[in-house]
Amino acid sequence: MTPIIETQSLVKVYRADGVETPALRGVDLAVAPGEFVSIMGPSGCGKSTLLYLLGLLATPTEGTVRIDGQDAGTLGDGGRTRLRRRHIGYVFQRFNLLPTLSAEENVGLPMRLRGERPGSAPREMLRAVGLEEKRRRRPNQLSVGEQQRVAIARALATRPTVLLADEPTGNLDSEASDRVMDLVGRLHRGTGQAIVLITHNRQVADRADRLIRMHDGRLVDA
Amino acid sequence: MLPLANILARPLRTAVSVLAVGVGVALFLVLVGLTGMLDEIARRTTQVEAHLMVWPASDQVVVSGGLPAEKVEKDLEGVAGVEHAIPVLRWPFKMAGRVQNVYGIRPEDWRYFASEDQILEGRALADGPEMVIDARLAAAGGYRVGQTVERWGHAFRIVGIAKEGVAGRVFMPIDTVGEALQQTSRRASFFYVRVVDPSHVAAVREAIRERGLNVFTLEEFYDVLASSFIDMDLVIGSVVFVAGFVCFLVILLTVYTMVIERTHEIGILKGIGASRAQVFGLVLSEAGLIAGAGIVTGFLLTWGGRALILHLQPLWTVEIPPLRYLLAALLAAGGTLLGAAQPAARAARQDPVESLRYE
Q1: Number of domains in chain A
Q2: How far A110 CA sits from the closest chain B CA (Å)?
Q3: What is the crossing angle of helices B276-312 and B230-261, to 10°?
Q4: In chain B, which among 221-280 make CB contacts under 8 A with chain A?
């Protein structure tokens, strides 16, 4: 089966004031459609950098990222944006909801960016994450757990083929964390999207089909 | 949705930006509108049933207070092609709190200045210590037909109110003005001249010029008068330019601050699929909303400013043709979008990962 997302010899080096800091040192990863993969590793090992590269938010120093067989390195900024819109949903650790918009507007925003009219889809997504009643609330009127559920609804609103989640439970207490992961698991089973999830939490990581460890910019236990 | 939500999230800053654009629009419209006052004077002065104006050389004005009316009239009417010479003796005269140029004319010449239907109330000018004023002066000073105005020991009765737009705001018989000025012989400040055949105006003008008199067609005189206001236009133009530039800087600073402040949000937008063009468009849309609100505010300020000016100075003219509103709107929108373009381009170029890390 063709991987939905695949990297080959991925290297990322950050340069600042003449100093080079390698973040990834040759990462080969393949995620099958519908697969749930979690990545664990200590802080600074390159997990978030890997996720940014998989989400086409950053470009690698060396190596390739393929999404659904398409080499992102051959695309310009516009092409990468289109590929990201079509395939990638992103859940951030800090939720990253837009503070001036309601929950419903936040969920509908990716559709608007794709040039689609959201219609009732955001409301249905919020119903799926148990927040339909709070759809008109702004992020600061929601608890952190609720904000993360809104962020998940937003990431899934465009039915992406891959959901990238960067420590989605990192800012949540254990109860909220369980609820969010139950939700992720339920949505994953319902939609069949591939998930790449970064976490420090072993219990969260164990919910995945496959656990990968990272250390010092490399996958050490795939 | 998002641009509106964003500008409403910072109401004070948005209000200041909107006000900056509004003040710029209002300054442009009102100040340029005030130049209409000068144009209105030039237009009125040449709004006479005549073809030429004859002025004394400047030394004649200083030495003798004008042209010897009877002699010059005789000279002018001796020129081939001249139908009639109309002497005018001007006299500065304070009414409604401002100095007016009284037009001293022969009552029988009134028909060249206004037709019967231009007398709104009362009658046209006859002999004696009387005056006809225009409707605007009447409204500004609260004057009525039958009222007497006293100046320098003379009493002048208002016998008629004429429609606005005739050459002067105040008309009196030329002999009355001469007596008030204690002239021993009739003099004229200038003459209007009617020619028999308007197609021969140029030839008649040359013939008058050969007699050593300053002569202009009414069109030339209008141009001379209008160009004499050029310094005023320059001052007003400079003020308008400075106002426009300050507005531009306010918008540039506002949008620049807005972009810096929302660096993280721009990262989020890119993270969820916004293209560079969409981010650029979003910032420009916010600036466009500010411009739109600023233009409406500017129109309201213009309306209020114009009403205030006309209340305080009823004889001033603030002429704002509809096309000038359109021009002001285009300039404000153009200036705002230009001011926003650089910050918008900066936002569009922002690295999404750096933006997401930005606190």
Answers
A1: 1
A2: 6
A3: 140
A4: 264-265, 267-278
User: What count of CB pairs under 8 Å joins A to B?
Assistant: 70
For chain B, domain boundaries: 2-42+230-357, 57-212
Measured between CA atoms, the residue of chain B closest to residue A58 is: B353
Residue pair B203/B210 in contact by the 8 Å Cβ criterion:
no
Test mutation, A88, A98, A102, chain B, max B CBs within 10 A: A98
Residue with tokens 């509004």: B22
Crossing angle between the packed helical segments A144-156 and A103-113, to the nearest 10 degrees: 20
What CATH number did the domain enclosing A111 receive?
A: 3.40.50.300
Cβ separation of A77 and B275 shorter than 8 Å? yes
- Structural domain including A104 reads 5-221
| Contact across the interface for A98 and B268, Cβ inside 8 Å | yes
Q: Which residues of A touch B270 (CB under 8 A)?
A: 57, 81
Report yes or no for ipTM above 0.85: yes
- pLDDT tens string, chain A, 222 residues long: the values are 789 999 999 999 998 888 999 999 999 999 999 999 999 998 889 999 999 999 999 999 999 999 999 999 999 988 999 999 899 999 887 888 999 999 999 999 999 998 899 999 999 989 888 899 999 999 999 998 899 889 988 988 888 999 999 988 887 788 878 888 888 888 888 888 899 999 988 888 999 999 999 999 999 865
Planar angle of CA B212, B217, B223, nearest 5 degrees: 110
